[in-house]
Amino acid sequence: MAPIGVPSDKSLIVSFGEMLIDFVPTESGVSLAEAPGFLKAPGGAPANVAIAVARLGGKASFVGKLGDDEFGHMLADILKKNGVSEDGILFDHGARTALAFVTLRADGEREFMFYRNPSADMLLKPEELNLDLIRSSKVFHYGSISLIVEPCRSAHLKAMEVAKQSGALLSYDPNLRLPLWPSADEARKQILSIWDKADVIKVSDVELEFLTGSDKIDDETAMKLWHPNLTLLLVTLGEKGSRYYTKNFHGSVDAFHVNTVDTTGAGDSFVGALLCKIVEDPTILENESKLREVLKFANACGAITTTKKGAIPALPTEADALALIKGA
Asked: TM spans, by residue (predicted)?
């Protein structure tokens, strides 16, 4: 029998890491200093993935630490309202919830300025983890921001180890945020330090260039990131779609063309969609035609997320994604 407060079936996707508030200028295409005002936009890639999963009808839980402050409780409430299990959420009494000021450039791309010195998410300790929850996951998903400092780094490594021992599929999206790292070299080193543990890895074209040191976005460059334990490597290319690599096949899937307003959360939406479908049918990882269908669905979810400001309000339902695919 599963412990109380832990979902008992093996369809659970556990997302580990940071949740924070993005403050987004009310006007696009201005610098932070020029912004006349800001809107609160809840975010943090692992939390976005958890909500993306729940919005698509999957079973999601978030593991991370928030400040015991108004913003922290607001974020926990957003997870709950969006159907994400709160069994892995902790509150720190001494540190604040992380904040990020994000400017949207005229082309919809983002620039960041972070307030985390230290923020609650960085203070998660290994002994505070809900290990029963982690053991019950079918998929354990994480990024790299939780690797930057102790004690959160040790908590991340412990959670990964426990999930792996329990038979979960490990999913990794580095979600590079260079301003948070002491240096680019340290970022590269730490992001790659856990590379060979993951079963599924998703990188953006920018992350591919950063991690390989190559300015070419091609199959040869992507395969530099392959490791023997990997089942699926994905490279997202924005409006050019996505590429996939497995032991037996590789290829690309076109993007859907939409009116892009804000790219925030598109990659998280893509990952959430993919993980939902893997949990439903793990054989997609060995079957190219099934995988292509799933990636088409994930591309549709990513595209829809770019059509509104902010990640969480823009995350689609299954019906939204199917309507876009049908109409394309």
From this structure: none
Q: Which residue type does 130 have?
A: N
pLDDT, position 108: 64
Strand residue runs (E) in 249-301? 250-253
Q: Is 179 helix (H, G, I), strand (E, B) or coil?
A: helix
Residue 249 in contact with residue 266, Cβ under 8 Å? no
- Please state whether beta strands 169-172 and 200-204 pair in parallel, antiparallel, or not at all (unpaired): parallel
Q: Give Cα separations from 153 to 149, 171, 259, 288 (angstroms).
A: 6, 17, 38, 35
State both tokens at 259.
């009116």
The residue extents of the domains of the chain are 44-95+118-327
Buried b (16+ CB within 10 A) or exposed e, 181-190: beeeeebbeb
Q: What is the CATH number of domain 44-95+118-327?
A: 3.40.1190.20
Burial of residue 302 (CB within 10 Å: 0-12, 13-18, 19+) is: buried
Contact 247, 285 (CB under 8 A): no
Sign of dihedral through CA atoms 89, 43, 123, 162?
positive
* pLDDT (tens digit per residue) in 174-221: 999 999 999 999 999 999 999 999 999 999 999 999 999 999 999 999
Q: Do 315 and 55 touch, CB atoms closer than 8 A?
A: yes
The residue to which tokens 């974020």 are assigned = 75
Q: Any idea which residue has 């832990």 for tokens?
A: 6
Strands 85-92 and 59-67: parallel
Give phi and psi for 191, each to the nearest 5: -60, -40
Distance between CA 86 and CA 116 in Å, rounded?
Answer: 23
- Catalytic residues, by residue number, are 268
Give the other-Cβ count within 10 Å of 207's Cβ: 21
pLDDT per position as a tens digit, 131-182: 999 999 999 999 999 999 999 999 999 999 999 999 999 999 999 999 999 9
